[in-house]
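User: Hi! I have a protein structure encoded as tokens and I'd like to know what sequence might fold into it. I'm fairly new to this, so please keep things simple.
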């Protein structure tokens, strides 16, 4: 069974209403705050804790609690911000955002994820996910491409471990 990852499995379960009603306690969308308070959060959302109350979205389903527990017990896995060389190009009716480089180690996966869109800009983030157990071998090359219609003329930014870069 796959180890849960904060950005992929835990953060999406934390509803806006959960965050708002617990802001006196911790920012439930912040990885470090959730890790620091994981025991308390688990005791509150576990079926015996009755949290969140019905008036605030209702308790988490048992499946969510089980995923949170697995994440907590397996060491609080999270994604890493990657590093690559980025480029923007135009081909036919398509705009392309590319990332090239080398993954940190064998068994890692990487991808560009659309993180934010406004009327004037879109921002991608480069994520790396480590394998659950180390994989022997040479770190593989990274070659990623995101495509979107050339009618989209917004500025393009990419966030990686070195910061935010504007590509277009």
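Assistant: Happy to help. Inverse folding works backwards from shape to sequence: for each of the 168 positions I chose a residue that suits the local structure. Here it is:
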């Amino acid at each position: 069974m796959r180890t849960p990852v904060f950005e992929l499995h835990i953060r999406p379960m934390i509803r806006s209403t959960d965050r708002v009603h617990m802001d006196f306690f911790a920012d439930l969308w912040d990885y470090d705050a959730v890790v620091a308070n994981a025991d308390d959060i688990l005791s509150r959302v576990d079926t015996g804790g009755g949290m969140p109350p019905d008036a605030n979205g209702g308790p988490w389903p048992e499946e969510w609690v089980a995923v949170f527990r697995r994440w907590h017990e397996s060491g609080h896995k999270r994604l890493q911000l990657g590093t690559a060389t980025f480029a923007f190009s135009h081909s036919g009716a398509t705009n392309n955002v590319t990332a090239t480089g080398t993954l940190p180690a064998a068994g890692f996966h990487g991808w560009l994820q659309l993180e934010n869109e406004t009327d004037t800009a879109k921002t991608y983030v480069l994520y790396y996910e480590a394998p659950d157990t180390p994989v022997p071998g040479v770190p593989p090359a990274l070659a990623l491409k995101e495509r979107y219609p050339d009618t989209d003329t917004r500025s393009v930014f990419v966030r990686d471990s070195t910061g935010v870069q504007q590509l277009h």
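A useful reference point when you look it over: The CA atoms of residues 85 and 164 lie 12 Å apart. Feel free to ask if any position seems puzzling.
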